[in-house]
Amino acid sequence: MQNQTHKKFIFTHILLFIGGLTMILPFYWMIATSLKSPAEAVAMPPVWLPMPPRILNYFRALQVAPFGRYFMNSLIVTSLCTLGETITSILGAFAFARLNFKGKNFLFTAILATMMVPGELLIIPNFVTLSKLNWINTYMALIVPWLASAFSVFQLKQRFESISDELYYSAKIDGCSDFNFLWQILVPMSQSSIITMIILKVIASWNDFMWPLLVTNEQDMRTLPVGLQAFTTESGTNFELLMAASALVILPMVIFYLIFQKYIVRGISTTGTKG
Known about the structure:
mainly alpha; two-stranded antiparallel ribbon; 14 helices; 2 strands; 72% helix; 1% strand; globular
């Protein structure tokens, strides 16, 4: 029996090692390619270890396009989208979790139903709407459509409902308003779930490519993912510079995730748990 358990342990860790290696390999290839010469970047068979490493590629990549402007645009869009979604999700989740109003269940079902609609179907209607508002190539187009999320409302609603009803009624007896109960009690007790939502929103907004590409047509309004197009021209793609720029774009999110990953695990594990 002990021998069988030992074999299962070894087999499990072998699978985990293979899975981890599979996940790391694309990142290694990106970093390795960013340090290659133009010839090594397109060589066949592939060059796995550039000799010598060319750190200069990172400085050259920053000179190809105005990445400082792209970085500021991404920072502004990500910050405001995250702030807006956090506020609307908290307020919406509280309304559906604690308040009683006519049509509550129908409205919540309708919001959940929007999660089943592919985002690609909404691109054209949203673009037409923004065009009529003259918002194309503005921060409004990049930010306003992403100030609310059905998934975030659903996630926080589950967390708010997991908090004891007795606590809510006790607070009401003590004269606590719904608004004060939300911000002074519910929000602090749901910190892990809220931080999880914020982390996922930051990563998604920072890496968004399709929407900024569609609603911006001037270089000054481009975000970092869209700015990577500068390395693809009619004469071909500078793979070593593209990978160097990609590494610079991804690096802030990798650091951000590593710092806050414990909140994701904690938030997911507590969401929907009654207690």
